[in-house]
Every structure is written in structure tokens, then in C-alpha cells.
Write a structure and sequence with these properties.
alpha+beta; 25% helix; MtLigD_Pol-like; 2 domains; ATP-dependent DNA ligase; 6-stranded mixed β-sheet; ligase; NHEJ_LigD; ligase activity
């Protein structure tokens, strides 16, 4: 493969470079393979990125080199890539919205390979969250199997309040749960998520933790409700992760979660994810359907 290719993606000129560069040394996975993955995953990835101001983990020299978590457009991003103005406590800044395949490929070409987005869109703004997200993070002595147990408990708790729930792997050791909402203020979404976590901790104290203190985490799963803060972002569905080996934050079915007996059953490589999508479609496809959104409990 040539090390530099001048091409056009949906009418946008791109010069793709260093395609043979190994970014995941443990497996020899190259930048060219990462770009190939994103090109094929774009139809299922982009619906979960569109209009959401994106942040990135950038690792141009591979996962064993220096990495940067950035919210601003990376240097070298083409002028045609769409950006939006985002206001925060420290003032306003421009951020990229990954609305199309050319932008996705341009970012990947610049080493911005891990994609994170907030629970709100640029159109609604930070005070109109259209997603509730729960991050299940196992402490020492716990793992993915414990996360699966807790995920089912969270799903039941949300269902009792009229919310439908989708689940994906984090691409690391935990799970992420999503519930689509009629847009609501972030502080209310965070408050509700915290109350659910506290309720589950009270009912299952040996397994569930709602508090952030690390000394409490051994053997338990932290139900991280704080991901719903307007300033927080979560790894996007189908993003590559900057782990030792190339893993993907992968949407899965509740049947897979309920029947998981080994962590390897819910660990997926890029090629496995593409095969799953080709065979079964996107388990998260209906998450973006506005008809599935429900009012946040207590705001009806």
C-alpha cells in the first residue's frame, strides 16, 4: 500500500498519509486499517455523532506513544470540516461536529481516532440532554460479568420509570447504558441518574456502588451517573479505543448481556464489529429514533 494517497471522499479532497504506520504494536494494526474500519463503519457510527460537539483522544504515534485528549479541532483539519461554537465555564470554543464521512476520515487521518460526544446536540445545547447515560465501571476484584449483572438491574430500574435502555461495551472493561429522552436540563438528568444509582446501591450493597470514592470500589461496580453532566463526554458507539489492542465500543443485545459467562464474549475487534453489523445490523439503530424518546421521570 502506498504511504500517501490523494483521494476524494464524497467530493472532499483528502491526502491520507502514513498508512503503514503501526498504531497498535501488540497486534500490528496500522493507521490504514483504522481508516478502513471507519470508512466501513461510518453508516452505523455517524448517526450517533451527528450534531454532537466531539472530543478526541489523539495518538498520532500509536497507543504506546504520547496521547492527547482534545476538544478543539486538531491541527491540520480541513477548513470544510463542520464546527460549532460551544459555550462553557471557561468561555466559548470551536468544536468539530462529525456529520459526514469526509470529516470522520480527515480526523482519523490526523490520529484523532477515539471519538467522544456529550449527551446533547449542538442544536439543543448543553441544557437540553436527549440521552441519559450510565457508565458501569468495575472496581478491583469485579469485572465484566459483574457489570452485566448490574446492567440488568439498571435496565429494570429505568423500565419501572418508563425509560427504554440500550447497552454497549465500553471497549475496555465496563458497559455503557443509554436511554433516549425528551430533551431535559443536564442537572435534572444527572440528579435522576444519581437517584437510580443510590437506589440500586441500597438494594444491592454488596454489588453496586453509587459513590465515587475509590477505596469503596473493590468487588463492586460503580454506577457512574456523573456522565450526564453537561461538560462530560462518553466514548461514542463504534469508536476505536486507545487500548493495548484495537477494541471497539460495541453495541450489543440484552440477550448477549444476560447470557454472558466469559468476558471474551463481549470483547470485539474492528473486523468482528464489521462482521456483526453486516450480519445483524446496528443494535443501536432505534436509539436515534425520536419516537423512542421518553420524558425524564419527574418532568412530565
Amino acid at each position: 500500500m502506498p504511504d500517501r494517497i490523494a483521494t476524494t471522499v464524497d467530493g472532499r479532497p483528502l491526502a491520507l498519509s502514513n498508512l503503514e504506520k503501526v498504531l497498535w504494536p501488540a497486534t500490528g494494526f496500522t493507521k490504514g486499517e483504522a481508516l478502513h474500519y471507519y470508512a466501513l463503519a461510518a453508516p452505523v457510527l455517524l448517526p450517533h455523532l451527528r450534531r454532537r460537539p466531539a472530543s478526541f483522544v489523539r495518538f498520532p504515534d500509536g497507543v504506546e506513544g504520547e496521547r492527547f485528549y482534545i476538544k478543539h479541532p486538531p491541527p491540520g483539519l480541513p477548513d470544510w470540516a463542520p464546527t460549532v461554537e460551544v459555550s462553557g465555564k471557561d468561555g466559548s470554543r470551536r468544536q468539530v461536529v462529525v456529520d459526514d464521512v469526509p470529516t470522520l476520515m480527515a480526523l482519523a487521518n490526523l490520529g484523532a481516532l477515539e471519538l467522544h460526544v456529550p449527551q446533547w446536540t449542538a442544536d439543543g445545547g448543553p441544557d437540553a440532554h436527549d440521552l441519559l447515560v450510565v457508565d458501569l465501571d468495575p472496581g478491583p476484584g469485579a469485572g465484566l460479568l459483574e457489570c452485566c449483572r448490574v446492567a440488568c438491574l439498571v435496565r429494570e430500574a429505568l423500565a419501572e420509570d418508563g425509560l427504554e435502555c440500550w447497552v454497549k461495551t465500553s471497549g475496555s472493561k465496563g458497559l455503557h447504558l443509554y436511554a433516549p429522552l425528551v430533551p431535559a436540563p443536564g442537572r435534572l438528568v444527572s440528579g435522576y441518574a444519581k437517584a437510580v444509582a443510590q437506589r440500586l446501591e441500597a438494594d444491592h450493597p454488596a454489588l453496586v456502588l453509587s459513590r465515587m470514592a475509590r477505596h469503596l470500589r473493590p468487588g463492586k461496580v460503580f454506577v457512574d451517573w456523573s456522565q450526564n453532566a453537561s461538560a462530560k463526554t462518553t466514548a461514542a458507539p463504534y469508536t476505536l479505543r486507545a487500548r493495548r489492542t484495537p477494541t471497539v465500543s460495541t453495541p450489543v443485545t440484552w440477550e448477549e448481556v444476560a447470557h454472558c459467562t466469559r468476558p471474551e464474549q463481549l470483547a470485539f475487534t474492528p473486523s468482528q464489529v464489521l462482521a456483526r453489523v453486516e450480519r445483524d445490523g446496528d443494535p443501536f439503530a432505534s436509539l436515534t429514533d425520536p419516537a423512542r424518546a421518553r420524558p425524564l421521570p419527574g418532568t412530565r
